Amino acid sequence: MSKSIPFSARSWVHGSELTEFPIQNLPFGIFSEGYLGHCRVGVAIGEWIIDLSRLHALNYLSMLPFENDDFRSKSLNKMMMRGKKACSALRLRIADLLDSSQDAIVKDEFTSCLVKMSEAKMHLPVDIGDYTDFYSSEDHARNVGMMFRDPAKALLPNWKHLPVGYHGRASSIVISGTPIIRPCGQVNASDETQPSFAPTKQLDFELEMAFITFDGKPMGERISTAEADDYIFGMVLFNDWSARDIQRWEYVPLGPFLAKNFASTVSPWVVTLDALEPFRTIGPPQDPEVLPYLQYTGIKNIDINLQVAIHPENGNEVVVSNSNYKHMYWNMNQQLAHHTIGGCNMRCGDMLASGTISGPTEGSFGSMLEIAWKGTKPVDMGNGTTRNFIHDGDVVILRGYAEQEGIKVGFGVCSGKVLPAKD
Questions:
Q1: How does strand 271-272 pair with strand 232-239?
Q2: Is residue 293 within 8 Å of residue 342, measured between CB atoms?
Q3: Which of 6, 97, 391, 402 lies 20 to 30 Å (CA to CA) from residue 282?
Q4: Among residues 123, 153, 187, which one ends one of the domains?
Q5: Catalytic site residue 140?
Q6: How many domains does the chain have?
Q7: What is the pLDDT of residue 247?
Q8: What are the residues whose beta carbons fall under 8 Å from the beta carbon of 15, sequence distance 6 or more?
Q9: Nearest Cα residue to 127 out of 80, 72, 176
Q10: Mean pLDDT of successive 10-residue segments in the chain (423 residues)?
């Protein structure tokens, strides 16, 4: 049975096909209503949220292996523990109920399960047990290598042999709209011999996407590239905020620490891998040939348009990057296979981020470090100011969507406003 919903399908929910949440999408998230509203599972359709606990109470989901408690939850984890097959069937069942061919009785009862997005609050969609950040964009890795190393040796020797990554901090991943406090730490200018303690002067965003896993295999077992799709629930937009000056001093020899652990921002809606299947595209050629465990068959990259904008406190929003997820050198299947090759067990709700997504041209770079090219090309904000890095009061906004035949499958906004450092 196909898990994709035809582009020709239309919902009876008025105008939903004109939004980034048409019937072909149906992403999952956690929402609440009112000041003391209880969190529960919702699905986006147009400008509405479907309350799945209400829908289940009306017995429209009775043929599926879910309990009402799976939907009256502060995270998607309970629902996801039912597995890929069940979650795929749930999404298709919702699509059937939303189809324009449904009868008036179903439409009338279903309407009682709809909540206006404008009247709801979104929450972190999953209880994230562990978080891993990869470094999988060749253009980004080459740009950084050219800035800080011999341009002729921009990529390190291991880069094209494995998906480089590190284990990050799950506790500081926050939902879109959460303010970001400028971090402090040790910094050391290149002409200094001793570090000083100060707020970062080089706060940066990183345009990323992240995928969320179902429960994996037991510790000691591996997930192959062929199996990986069965363990991936869906994707979110991801801003891996970075303090470049703190990172430059601390990263040798073990990598980022305080420069990364203060905050990462995610979009509220998890777009399922099923919804993204129609947007598969061929990825960059991999040369040299990778080791057997990283080899894969089929088309595994995904064509997702990505955009970053900065909205200054006293000015208008300025788009600083237009990129695409299809540029990734290492795909999700390879990342998951590599993550588990040593026997590491994946858990339900684990989040694995792509690393900064940069394209091959200046307008498609995924960080201010690259866009302003280490401070040599300041970005005009149109209000009399420029940016090499992010200022206090700036709102950084990530957007993303896949599109075919006039249908957009989007993720919602991933944004955060930068506040001054604490004394």
A1: antiparallel
A2: no
A3: 6
A4: 123
A5: yes
A6: 2
A7: 95
A8: 46, 47
A9: 80
A10: 86 98 98 88 98 97 97 98 98 98 96 97 97 97 93 94 97 98 91 86 98 98 98 98 95 93 98 98 97 98 98 96 98 98 98 98 97 96 97 98 98 98 92
Which amino acid appears at position 218 of this protein? P
**Helix, strand, or coil here: 132?**
strand
> Do 162 and 46 fall within a single domain?
no
Q: Is 9 part of any domain? A: no
Asked whether residue 239 falls in the same domain as residue 322, the answer is yes
Q: Which amino acid is at 415?
A: S
Q: What CATH number is associated with residue 262?
A: 3.90.850.10
Catalytic residue selected from 56, 140, 338, 339: 140
Q: Is residue 383 domain-resident? A: yes
CB–CB of 335/353 below 8 Å?
Answer: no
CATH number at residue 36: 2.30.30.230
Bridge pairing between strands 28-33 and 40-45: antiparallel
Query: What gap in Å lies between CA 29 and CA 352, rounded to an integer?
Result: 18
134 within 8 A of 354, measured Cβ to Cβ? yes
| Beta carbons within 10 angstroms of residue 397's beta carbon | 22
- What pLDDT is attached to residue 192? 66
At residue 232's C-alpha, the angle toward residues 231 and 237, to 5°, is: 160
Residue 192 and residue 95 share a domain: no
Transcribe 254-287 into DSSP letters.
T--SHHHHT-EEE-S-BEEHHHHGGGEE-----S
Query: Contact at 8 Å (CB) between 100 and 46?
Result: no
* Beta-strand pair 165-167/48-51: unpaired
List, as one string, the DSSP characters of 179-237.
-EEPPEEEE--TT-SS-EEEE-S-EE-BEEEEEEE---PPTT----TTTGGGGEEEEEE
State residue 173's pLDDT score.
98
Alpha-carbon distance of 241 to 133, in angstroms, equals 12
Q: Which of 284, 133, 277 is nearest to 208 (CA)?
A: 133
375 contacts 382 by C-beta, under 8 angstroms: no
Domain assignment of residue 298, given as a range: 131-419
Say whether both 77 and 98 belong to one domain: yes
Dihedral sign for Cα 158, 162, 165, 166, please: negative
User: Is the model's pTM score more than 0.70?
Assistant: yes
Give the end of a domain, one of 123, 140, 160.
123
Per-residue pLDDT, 191:
64
The reply to whether 51 and 198 lie within a common domain is no
Residue 372, in any domain of the structure? yes
354 domain-assigned? yes
